[in-house]
Every structure is written in structure tokens, then in C-alpha cells.
Design brief:
The complex is a heterotrimer. By secondary structure, chain A is of the alpha/beta class. Chain A has 14 helices and 18 strands. In chain C, the strands form 2 sheets. A 5-stranded parallel beta sheet of chain C has the order 3-2-4-5-6. Classes of the chains: A alpha/beta, B alpha/beta, C alpha/beta.
Chain lengths: ~425, ~325, ~180
């Protein structure tokens, strides 16, 4: 395998507390050396002067839609979208058809990712069989295949006793419970955040209580069982605070936020824009501020996209019946860098939220940049200005509310296991 | 100033001048409805499709009569006969309707934003005849026309709107229209039917006691309680609703002596309005229905004109 | 380019023309028993009011007076857009009446065609006659006036303006050249 020398970039790896301008030498798929003035003999040289060199980005909340919903996305297109956005690892949610609740589906995903994938894929299995919220998935066997986390994402585990048992069962296997915290009775038939905008548009609202009450329950159950809880896509002021307080008490809880929740508010729904429809919904400005506060004060462990591809036919309909979710892999990096621009966090912190933070939350062996580790690297030009063109996204689906947005910052080269997977 | 809206999607997009033009035009058209020959050739050769994807009798009838009195060819499609039940998307339905080259599509739809959706996908004018819990602009305009007839001016009026505000498109359109024309709106309804932030839509004050809402009002507008929502958990019983939020001769006395009583219909007698009030001297409910035709004639006329002005430019 | 305006009829001249037309109408219709006046908005309605007063002075009877707005009956709405629609007010039965349609300026004849269509929707007059203050020619339809205040030969690009004061009395007729 070819040697690659990444020359003269600012190398940032929060896991190693590394932040210096130097070279990175890749050999045999591994990081061979990090240092100044490394020998470039026989190596392909990538000039990274003025750019930053980071561990490959890690997205722990992606819907690859494969198997079963390949018309929206498949493992090849989803992972291509990932490397285009600077990601070298994605964790994919189990709400496929069939549901990833057994070794067959997990193996299928792993095999297909090995054959067609452009980056690493870590399947997340379901908590309950068929996502039905009735009985536990065979987590032990799935652990043997490398699964590190379980989730019924897309749906909450409504029955609290079942969630408690899931936590108790998952804990000895070292599996993290990824919670989609939502009280469906409170959601009712809501389609957007409940507030003045939903009132004005005449759309049925979803109260923040539906998320907060469920988050509180999950945190208490984690506290009770000692399980590792990761709260997915936190979107409200209250939920951020519940996680903040739980962490103070020593509860084993982590959480992630999605770029759209720290970038947009429910105002984006105006005009009945179906690409502003997701679950959890875009919230109020106050919630968005609280999410940013949570990022700033360390409550938030990870930025995760909740990349949710949908076919145009599923979005080009009346708002009420449009599917929830947006694609996010190719816009997450610049939106996260905007937090640096806005003074919410510094650059190393932003990189941590996209690398070591998410890797640690799901206990994934990635997000590192040190000698001997796998050569998963993103070379990022933080100054590169570009405009989002939904039709040109690598993802099969084009459902983004950021179409036409002017972005600053992009991955110019993504290296997975020592091979260049994407170059801008 | 002239009317420049190709589509009538809601009152929200309208200025005071727009509303004024519509009301004045409606005033002029109203005279036709009392003629022996109730038809003028104004929109001769125009095709209007009344696409009603949600059950409606009076609004559809009113739009149909309005179109016919202006000599337009009106065609109705309704939820039960449309392709919607066959699983066709609204976009495909819209494209198919458009292929038949109508000049105006009047749409009633259960989903908020459906007229907006349609207007982005067809070339002809779109007139909203009620979408979900969003807006019902022609209803608000006929309400204002009726208030203006009885009160001389909208400016300075105190208008109480009582009922299920959450699910009411009429309330939203009325709030916009009344506020723009200088009236003050008092809203009252059960706690389960008063949406967050409704007071931000205009000059609105929210009341929990119907007596306070009505006291000194110039206009009392009662909204229909949807009987079909009773399976829901919004109200304990219609009896209790009638007792706390219904209009009866006793609480109507709290309004100004010359206050008028309005209702967008159809009424649930004995629920939101007692028969004594519904048939009493202060009710102007049938005036509303009559003005509905003139208002809709005005809307159809005005949007037709915008289209031709744009083609000429 | 500045427009030039020439006065072609003053207040007294207009009054004389109205008086003459009133006499002609009465003579033609053998008194005023079944007469009715309908002015075309706006301009003709003001003149019709004057004619009504003049006829009352001469004959002592009050002739029924109405006004018609022809916007709804125009044949050029497609190109003119949504012109403001004025009120039509004909507070009497037209059936069997000898209706005098009154307008300020007769030009292409299209306004008169629209006004006649409107009148027909209100009933069946026994006759419709046309009285105008100015006939400026350039007819596009087979229409002529029965009573004319003054014939004024004009070019198409010229315009005739009838000026009314605040009390809606005509004070001057001007020929406007571009």
C-alpha cells in the first residue's frame, strides 16, 4: 500500500490533546509517524499547509437505509456521502427493512460495507425485536459481531419497564443504549414544534414536554440501572439541562445534538417547507440557544447528523404527510465550524465533537490520530467557501433545508485506512 | 393602489388597502344578487375549478354561485369523487387539473398549507377556501363586509371570537383581517382550545371567561364546535361547553346593546349558541351567507385581473 | 412632451347644450311619462342628474334617475386587469320605459354597448336612446347618439376631458392634444 505524507498541516487530535503544525506519515493503512520534517521518500505528498489535519470524522447517527429502503440510500451512496463530508466512520441505525435485530442483518451490513463502503460502518442494533417495543433483541449475539450500541431510533421504547430491562440486560455486554426520547402520547399527531409558528401556520404542534419527560425517564432509568445511556438528537432546553444535571450526579450518560438543531429554529418551517420537517422538530430560538450553551459548556458529547435520506416523492407533498428527516453528512462539518466562527467553542473542541466525542459515546475504536492507529484522516480547509447544491450531493437523497446556503469549511481530502476515499 | 395578488392564500399576505379594495368591490357586486337576472358577463370564458378535498357545503356553494354569477364556467371536484382516494399525490392531481387549463383553482383542503403548495406548482391563480387550521380568507372577508355594513367601519370595533381557536382557520384569518383594519380582537375558549402564541398574530387579548370577553363588545362571533372532535380529550361534554362557553340571551346582554352576533356556520344550536340568540334580533348570520357570495365574486374578479395585467407586462 | 389643452365648451355652453337636449328628449318622447334617465359612471351619471333637474324645470315632473357602472360588462377586461368596480343603482323597473342613456363623451361606442348589455339585465325597456355631451367620432360599433351637445372632430391620439367641479357640475370641456 502506498505511503502518504500529509505535509505542513495543523494537526488536531483532541483525543491525544494534539494541536501542532507538523507532518503525518501514513504507511500500510496506519499512522506511521507524526512530526516535523518527516521523510517523504516514496510517499505521495499531500500539501496541507494552511489546512487542518484531524482524525476522520465520526457520525454516530446515520440512516443508511440498507437493507430494504435502497431507493432512499444504500451503503455505497451513504458512505460516499460520508467521506464527502469528511466522515470516515458512521454508525447506522437499525430501522431498515428488515430491522437490524439479528445477526443476519448485522452481517449483511458489515459485509456490504466491506465490499462497497467508502468508510467504516458500525451497525447499531435495535433494542426491541422489530422495533415493536415488545421484546428484547438478542443483544449478546450481536455484541459478538461487533455491535457496540442498541437503539430503537425513530421510535421511543414507550414501555418504561421494558426500557429498564433493556438497560439492565445491555449493561453486562458493555452495550450503550441509544435513546430516542419521545413521549408519543404527548406528540399525538403533531408535525412541528409547538409554539407561535405552529399556531400561525395552523400545523399541529409537538410540545417540548414530549422530549423532556422522556429524557428525564431515560436518565432516571440509567441512574437506577447503572447502564450506559446515550441520548440521541437532544433538541430542547429542558433535555439539555436534564443531561447536564445527570452528568453532575455521575450518571453514565452522554448525548448528541444535530447540526440542524443548533443552526435552525421552527421559523424554517414557514412556507410549509418539508425539508424543515424532522423528528425531533426544529425548536424555538430559546431551545437552539440552550443547545448551543450545552455544546459550549461540555454537556454535549457529540455532534451527530441524524442523516435521514428520503426520496423526493416523500418530501414533495403536503407538510402534514411529509416524512421526517434530512440528509446531513455533507453539511455537518461547515455547520459545526460555524460554531467556532460564532465563538461558541474553539476549533479543537469542534473537532472533538466530531471525532473523539462520538467515538467515546458509543465506545468505537476510532476518532484517534496517533502513531500506530488506523489512518482515518480528514484534511479540512476551514476557509473554503462553497454553496450547497442539493442536486449535487453524493447522497441518493436531496432532502436538505440548506440548499443554496453559503458554507465555509469543507473536507478537501478524506482518508480511510490509509487510502484516499475522497478528494475535493 | 390596485390589487396585485395572483393568489389568495391567506389574509396574512394582505395589506389594509388590499382588504379595502376587496370589500369595496364586494359592495359593488352585492347589487347583482338582488337583480332579476343575477348574472354579469365579467368573467365570461374563464374556467374556475372548485377543488374541495374536504367536505363543505356552503363554502363550495357560495364559490360556485359567485363564479356562475360572473359568467365563469365553474366545475366542482370533491374529496369523494377526486383521485385523492386512489392514492394520487396532490401534485399529480394539481398537474392534471392544470392540464385542463383552468384560470382559477379554488381549493379547500384538510392540510394546512395545501393551497400554498398548489400555488407553487400550477400556473393559474389559487384561491384558498380553507386549509386545515391555517386560514379561511374568504370567510374573514365576508365577516368584515358584514361588520362594515352593520357598524359603518371596522376601525375601533371590539370583536369577541369564542370557541375552539386552536382548530379554527376562521379565527386566524379574522384576527389578521380585523387587526389590519383597526379592530381589537378578544379571544375566548376552553384552555384545551387556545393555542400558544395566538396573541402574537395581531391585536389580540385572550380571555378565559366568556362574560369578560363579551362585555362591551360590538361583535360577538361564535365558532362552531366540531362534534366529530368529541372522541378527543379536549372537552368533558357538550353540556359543560354550552354552560361555560355558549352564547345565550343572558351573557349576550353584557355586549353593547347594538352588538351583532355572527357565526361562520353550520351552527350547533344549544351548544355554542342558544336558539334564542341564533334566531334573535341581533344575529346577522344570514347576512354573512349573503355577503359570502359577493365577497367571493370580488376575489374571483380581482385575481383574474391580476393575471391579465401580468401577461400584458 | 407637454400636452396642450384647449377649452372647447365653457360652463354656459354646457348648460345651453343640456337645456337643448332636455327639450329634444321631451319633444321626441312626447312628454316625459315613461321616460327614465340612466347615467354611465363616471361622468354620465352627473350629467343625467343635471338633465333630470332641467326636465323637471321644463315639464314639472321628476323623471326616474339611475346610474350604471359598466366595468362588469367591458369587453377589454382581459387586457385592462381588475379595474375598480363602481356601483350600479337603478332604483326603478325598466320594463316598458323609454330609457335615455347618458354619457359625457361618445367615442368608439364600446362603453355604450356595455351599458346597453347592463340595462338588458335589469329589464326590458321599450326603447333605449342615447344622449351625449360630446360626440368625438371614431366609432367601432354601429352606434349613434340620439341627442348630442356638440360634435367635435378629433384625432385618435387626442382626448376629450369633461371637467366637473366639487359639486359634480360640469364646468368645462377640453380638447387634449398629446
Amino acid at each position: 500500500m502506498a505511503k502518504i505524507l500529509i505535509k505542513g498541516g495543523r494537526v488536531i487530535s483532541p483525543a491525544q490533546k494534539l494541536d501542532k503544525t507538523c507532518d503525518v506519515l501514513i504507511e500500510k493503512g496506519k499512522i506511521a509517524a507524526i512530526g516535523k520534517g518527516l521523510d517523504d521518500k516514496g510517499a505521495k505528498v499531500i500539501d496541507a499547509a494552511g489546512k487542518i489535519v484531524t482524525p476522520g470524522l465520526v457520525d454516530i447517527h446515520v440512516h443508511l437505509r440498507d437493507p430494504g429502503l435502497e431507493y432512499k440510500e444504500d451503503i455505497a451512496s451513504g458512505t460516499l456521502s460520508a467521506v464527502t463530508g469528511g466522515f470516515t466512520s458512521v454508525a447506522c441505525m437499525p430501522n431498515t427493512q428488515p430491522v437490524n435485530d439479528n445477526q443476519t442483518v448485522t452481517s449483511y451490513i458489515l459485509n456490504k460495507a466491506a465490499q462497497e463502503g467508502h468508510c467504516r460502518v458500525f451497525p447499531i442494533a435495535s433494542i426491541t425485536k422489530g422495533l415493536k417495543g415488545e421484546s428484547l433483541t438478542g443483544m449478546g449475539e450481536l455484541k459478538e459481531l461487533g455491535v457496540t450500541a442498541v437503539s430503537d431510533d425513530g421510535k421511543p421504547v414507550s414501555n418504561p419497564q421494558l426500557m429498564r430491562r433493556a438497560m439492565e440486560y445491555a449493561k453486562p455486554f458493555g452495550l450503550t443504549i441509544v435513546s430516542h426520547a419521545e413521549d408519543l402520547d404527548l406528540v399525538d399527531s403533531g408535525v412541528m414544534n409547538e409554539g407561535p409558528v405552529s399556531t400561525e401556520l395552523g400545523l399541529k404542534g409537538i410540545t417540548w414536554v414530549s422530549e423532556d419527560s422522556a429524557t428525564a425517564r431515560e436518565v432516571m432509568l440509567a441512574e437506577c440501572t447503572g447502564a450506559n445511556l446515550h441520548v440521541a438528537h437532544v433538541s430542547t432546553k429542558g433535555s439539555i439541562d436534564i443531561v447536564r444535571q445527570a452528568k453532575k450526579r455521575g450518571v453514565s450518560v452522554t448525548c448528541e445534538v444535530a447540526p440542524h438543531h443548533f443552526t435552525l429554529t421552527d421559523e424554517a418551517v414557514r412556507g410549509y417547507k418539508t425539508n424543515a420537517k424532522m423528528n425531533p422538530p426544529l425548536r424555538s430560538a430559546e431551545d437552539m440557544e440552550a443547545v448551543r450553551q450545552g455544546i459550549s459548556d461540555g454537556t454535549v458529547d457529540a455532534i451527530a447528523t441524524d442523516h435521514a435520506p428520503h426520496h423526493i416523492d416523500e418530501k414533495n407533498v403536503e407538510f402534514n404527510i411529509a416524512m421526517n428527516g434530512i440528509v446531513g453528512l455533507e453539511t455537518a462539518l461547515p455547520l459545526s465550524l460555524q460554531l467556532v466562527e460564532d465563538g461558541v467553542i474553539d476549533l479543537p473542541k469542534a473537532i472533538a465533537l466530531l471525532t473523539s466525542g462520538p467515538a467515546a459515546a458509543l465506545n468505537l475504536p476510532v476518532g484517534q490520530l496517533e502513531e500506530g492507529s488506523d489512518a482515518d484522516i480528514a484534511i479540512i480547509d476551514t476557509e473554503l467557501e462553497w454553496t450547497v447544491d442539493a442536486q449535487k450531493l453524493a447522497s441518493k437523497s436531496k432532502n436538505t433545508p440548506f440548499d443554496g446556503w453559503k458554507m465555509k469549511g469543507a473536507a478537501v481530502c478524506t482518508i480511510v485506512a490509509g487510502k484516499i476515499a475522497y478528494q475535493r | 393602489m390596485s390589487f396585485q395578488h395572483k393568489h389568495v392564500l391567506g389574509i396574512e399576505q394582505m395589506t389594509k388597502e388590499d382588504i379595502q379594495i376587496i370589500l369595496d368591490t364586494a359592495d359593488s357586486f352585492k347589487e347583482i344578487n338582488s337583480r332579476e337576472i343575477k348574472k354579469v358577463p365579467t368573467l365570461r370564458g374563464k374556467t374556475i375549478i372548485n377543488a374541495f378535498f374536504e367536505a363543505s357545503t356552503r363554502t363550495r356553494l357560495s364559490f360556485e354561485i359567485a363564479g356562475k354569477r360572473l359568467s365563469a364556467d365553474t366545475v366542482n371536484i370533491s374529496g369523494s369523487t377526486s383521485s385523492v382516494v386512489k392514492g394520487e399525490t396532490l401534485e399529480d392531481t394539481a398537474k392534471n387539473i392544470e392540464a385542463m387549463a383552468p384560470d382559477i383553482i379554488v381549493i379547500r383542503h384538510g392540510h394546512s398549507g395545501a393551497p400554498h403548495y398548489l400555488s407553487e406548482r400550477v400556473g393559474c391563480s389559487v384561491v384558498n377556501a380553507g386549509d386545515g387550521a391555517h386560514e379561511h380568507p374568504s370567510q374573514a372577508l365576508l365577516d368584515l363586509m358584514t361588520m362594515r355594513e352593520h357598524k359603518g367601519s371596522i376601525d375601533g370595533l371590539e370583536v369577541a371570537i369564542v370557541g375552539d381557536i386552536t382548530h379554527s382557520r376562521v379565527a386566524r384569518s379574522d384576527i389578521y383581517a380585523l387587526t389590519r383594519m383597526g379592530a381589537k380582537v378578544r379571544l375566548c375558549g376552553p384552555g384545551t382550545m387556545m393555542p400558544i402564541g395566538i396573541e402574537l398574530l395581531g391585536n389580540v387579548e385572550v380571555f378565559t371567561d366568556i362574560r369578560e370577553a363579551i362585555e362591551g363588545a360590538d361583535v360577538v362571533m361564535m365558532l362552531r364546535i366540531q362534534m366529530e372532535r368529541q372522541s378527543n380529550i379536549l372537552l368533558p361534554s357538550l353540556r359543560e361547553y354550552a354552560r361555560f362557553y355558549g352564547l345565550n340571551p343572558t351573557n349576550l346582554k353584557l355586549a353593547k346593546p347594538d352588538a351583532i352576533v355572527m357565526h361562520p356556520g353550520p351552527m350547533n344550536r344549544g351548544v355554542e349558541i342558544s336558539s334564542a340568540v341564533a334566531d334573535g334580533g341581533q344575529n346577522v348570520i344570514l347576512d354573512q351567507v349573503e355577503n359570502g357570495v359577493a365577497t367571493r365574486m370580488a376575489l374571483l374578479y380581482l385575481v383574474s385581473g391580476v393575471e391579465s395585467m401580468q401577461t400584458n407586462d | 412632451m407637454a400636452k396642450t389643452e384647449t377649452a372647447i365648451l365653457d360652463k354656459a355652453g354646457i348648460a345651453r347644450a343640456i337645456t337643448r337636449i332636455a327639450h329634444e328628449i321631451l319633444e321626441q318622447n312626447k312628454g316625459g311619462e315613461r321616460l327614465a334617465l340612466v347615467g354611465i359612471r363616471t361622468g354620465g351619471d352627473h350629467l343625467a342628474t343635471l338633465l333630470q333637474a332641467r326636465i323637471q324645470e321644463i315639464e314639472g315632473t321628476e323623471v326616474p334617475l339611475g346610474a350604471v357602472d359598466i366595468t362588469m360588462y367591458r369587453d377589454d377586461l382581459a387586457s385592462r386587469g381588475n379595474l375598480p368596480i363602481g356601483k350600479t343603482n337603478i332604483p326603478f323597473h325598466l320594463d316598458g320605459k323609454q330609457v335615455i342613456l347618458v354619457d359625457d363623451v361618445l367615442y368608439t361606442g364600446r362603453t355604450i354597448r356595455s351599458a346597453m348589455d347592463a340595462l338588458m339585465d335589469f329589464g326590458r325597456p321599450s326603447t333605449i336612446q342615447l344622449a351625449v355631451l360630446i360626440d368625438r367620432g371614431h366609432r367601432e360599433l354601429p352606434i349613434r347618439a340620439d341627442y348630442v351637445g356638440r360634435n367635435v372632430p378629433t384625432a385618435r391620439e387626442e382626448d376629450i376631458a369633461v371637467i366637473f367641479d366639487d359639486e359634480l357640475n360640469p364646468v368645462e370641456v377640453r380638447l387634449v392634444k398629446p
